[in-house]
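# nightly structure sweep
# worker-07 picked up a monomer target from the shared queue
# config: single-sequence mode, recycle default, output format = structure tokens
# input follows
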Amino acid sequence: MNRSIDGLRGRTSLVLGHCAGMIDIVALPVWVGIVLIRYYGLDPQNAGALATSFLGAVVASSLFVSPRIERLPGKIAVPAGFAVAGVAFFCMAITRDYVTLVGLHIAGGLAVGCALSLTHSAIGASRNPHRLIAAGFTALSVLSLGFLGGVPRLASVLGGQVVFFVLGAIMLTAASFALIGFPDRPTPTSLDFKPRAHERLSRAVWFAMVGTSLLTLSHSMILSFLEPIGLKHGFSTEQVMTVFLAIGLVNIFPGLLAAFLERKVSGRVVMVAGPVLQAVLGFTLTHSMSFSPYAIACVIFPTVMIFTHTFIFAFLARNDPSTRAVAATPVMAMTGSAIGPILGGAVARHLGYESMGWTVAATAAIAVFCFWQAGRRAQSALPSAAEAAR
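# output follows
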């Protein structure tokens, strides 16, 4: 049976695959701050290193898969990848041996990277990538509401290992839907029926990809340590848990808002403004000793990533018809996310949590330059493209 990318079954499979593949970024404050630091007793640097090993494996896998998306059978590789990741998370829940945990984090990351690259490539090949990725981020936000609002409280009753059981269940759910609904994708060919050679990615695309990595670096660095930062400021555990619940509630809206504003707001402006707002919020929540500014900054901080990334994804899909760039979304997202936890842990250990705010500001400055260059170069390429079409 033919499975259309834009059919209901195909879209559902892709949205759930996006949720499962990106849930690790949403889970970072619980995964690192609560499970590994509070329950497993690891110091910030070792806890961050575990998250980095998972995310780094996602990057390595995506780097291998994204140039080969047209040769891999997504209907097999995607459900298999999410299933392997689910098993890895279940195994993490039954061991506290650090070396074993490192190996399981790497295995799970490799599996997720493969599945997520193929999922994002299929989204990029849909009729409206902006709308479909916005739907994916909205579904991810709904999932994060339940995860951030309920799982920390569940962990306080049943122990930190329950977080890994929940993550494993999410992976297996995505695997099941991919098994019955992951869409077919026609392989483009040239006139002699050989695989079509693709042009090299433009500089606009490369600048956008680097900027995305920097955006996710700041995002994961701050998000991984929201709880320790709050406790360091003197706020209670209950106050911080309330913030997590609020994050889940508010994060339902940026994906919907990005879909609504698709043709009403300049994507170039959004890409440049995203890192600026991220820096302001990161600096606020790391330096504020008053709960209200800390809480507001924490709640808004993840929404910046969701809203901005939706426009970045659409920008990449428009400027790279081969979908190799969007297939490499895990590389962009997870490279920054892999560096963020261990960088944040090292900064916190040696310079204090307040220094993270300055680190985010410096990272944002470079990201702004990258996104400005991406937009400028894409705009300058339009006239030549128009001439070529004549």
